[in-house]
Amino acid sequence: MSLFQNENITEQDTNYKSMGKSQLIMLLQSQKSDIDALERKLGKTAALEEENKRLTEQTAALGAENEALKARIAELEEQLAPKDSELNEPGSIAEMAFSVNGVMNAAQKAADDYLAKIKEMHDNMSHEYSEYETAARQKADAIMKNAVEEADAVKMKARTEANDIWNTLQKRLDNYISDKKQ
Length: 182
Description:
The chain is mainly α. It has helices at 3-18, 21-80, 84-87, 92-181.
């Protein structure tokens, strides 16, 4: 807490002591509603964090599934591997290599497309979360600024009223003393 804030708190304590109970209650109710609004926004932020966590876990699961698919592809490659007897036939090696290559290319393209889509979904969600978090912070800052401005206005009004009352009492006292002297 800075020195300025300590002085401000001491000044606020003095100002609060000069306020009536109803004014203090109204000030507290106003601050409570501001706090409630901030807590609701914090709850929404927590929900977005949960959604982001869920998507991250889903991305990890999809990565594991992709690894399993790659393992299955490797297994299929082994099954499609040319046998010694087939290797002796002219042209069979080229045909088999062409066939296996086509299957492998298609499987790899499908796996790459799938991972790209998941990454895109994750990136979009992360971007949306960042935008929401930034907006929530800006709104919270604006609410706090507004609350401080309103509190300052209330303090200023209370000071003015207290000074007016003090001046009126001072005049009455001066008049009373003046009347007693005559």
